[in-house]
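sry for the spam today, last one i promise. struct tokens for design, 200 residues
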């Protein structure tokens, strides 16, 4: 991983010293990547996106225009974060302490949003601090996610609730007895962690 600006970083993007950017990653206009952030290879960081200090982004991710990913978020490989989506880090935000003095860095407990492999977070969605999004899950545009999302689960609404289940390619799956099937014929079974693809 290279540190800082590269020839694939727009001239008006701000990549702070101490940020690591993987090979083949594009950083578009007015994006801001803070010191200590780590972005994997072959990612796209959209215009105006913000990646906080200490955030870890895997390979082959897309973080679209004006998305905000606050520390200490962790995004696995192949994650999609839609335009204007926000991954928060504080369940009890306050500008002031109880004595009326402004809060300083370190006077609050940041909780990470964790997004597992292949998951998608739709445009304008908000994911509350401490939430985990499962593998290949899909969060609909505009949702407010205040609870963990299972593998392959489709959630929408405020607060986000289950609308069904999706395959790796995002198609809805339908139940057939004890198994679930996607339009392309892939089969899934329900586990404690959500749907799991049947490979045998």
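last one done:
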């Amino acid at each position: 991983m290279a540190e800082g600006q590269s020839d694939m970083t727009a001239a008006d993007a701000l990549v702070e010293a101490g940020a690591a950017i993987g090979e083949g990653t594009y950083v578009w206009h007015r994006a801001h990547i803070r010191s200590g952030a780590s972005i994997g290879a072959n990612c796209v960081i959209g215009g105006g996106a913000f990646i906080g200090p200490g955030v870890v982004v895997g390979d082959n991710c897309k973080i679209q225009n004006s998305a905000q990913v606050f520390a200490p978020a962790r995004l696995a490989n192949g994650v999609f974060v839609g335009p204007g989506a926000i991954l928060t880090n504080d369940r009890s935000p306050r500008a002031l302490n109880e004595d009326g003095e402004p809060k300083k860095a370190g006077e609050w407990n940041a909780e990470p949003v964790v997004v597992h492999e292949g998951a998608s977070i739709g445009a304008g969605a908000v994911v509350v601090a401490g939430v985990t999004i499962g593998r290949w899950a899909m969060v609909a545009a505009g949702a407010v996610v205040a609870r963990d999302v299972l593998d392959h689960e489709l959630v929408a609404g405020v607060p986000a609730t289950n609308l069904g289940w999706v395959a790796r390619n995002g198609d809805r799956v339908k139940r057939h007895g004890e198994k679930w099937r996607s339009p392309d014929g892939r089969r899934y079974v329900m586990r404690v962690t959500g749907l799991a693809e049947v490979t045998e």
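The CA atoms of residues 57 and 75 lie 5 Å apart. ok im logging off now
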